[in-house]
Amino acid sequence: MRFNGNFLREMRTRLDVDLLGSVSLEAAPSGELRKQAAALLPGAKTVIVMGKEMYKEVVALLAPSRDAGEAAGGDLLSSHGDYLNGRLTRAVHDLARFFKDQGLRSLPLPPITPTDQRFLTPLFSYKLAGHLAGLGSIGRHSLLITPAFGPRERLACVLTEAVLEGSPVPAHNLCSGCNACIDACPSHALMVPEPGKPYSINKFACRAYRQAGLTCGMCIKACDAARE
Fold this sequence. Notes:
Shape: globular
Radius of gyration: 18 Å
Order of helices and strands: HEHEHHEEEHEEEHEEHH
Low-confidence stretches: none
Strand order of the largest sheet: 1-2-8-3
């Protein structure tokens, strides 16, 4: 079953999401994304990617360190993220149910996806899907940068047998290469990428910093400030 170009616009309003785009898996240039999709839902034709804005006011409160036991405004990011994750989880399940009611197999992928802890690779790359769905570009912090919100968004996906045309991929790279995220990274996990690569990150250093109970998200704050 095919859906026309108005479908995503209508669904963005109905699902109450800020971003919505689609990837045609048959036309997708990424073999890795097709492989990931096929492993989760054999026969999937389309990836639909949706996002919700992380509020600038919350991101602005992030700070790299604090004294033990000290209250910090950056702690609000956790509850804010929980709220956004909940809204996105409902949205992907509602959309999957819509397709299933049309007789189309669909798989909702909520914001928090299983990750292979040996290599810190996700079961499905939401950021790559978001880029190919026309939502934005991958920055030097390895995050998706969108025209409306910069790096301030949470993402979720739906895999479906429904056939939709893919959204156009942005022709302009939204990452300026300013290195603000690299300079701000308190764990020194970010590095200047090799030529032709969008980013270079030591995922284990990033995880170790966050597991120590220290604030993460400084790359988001620095990138957002640099875009003003």
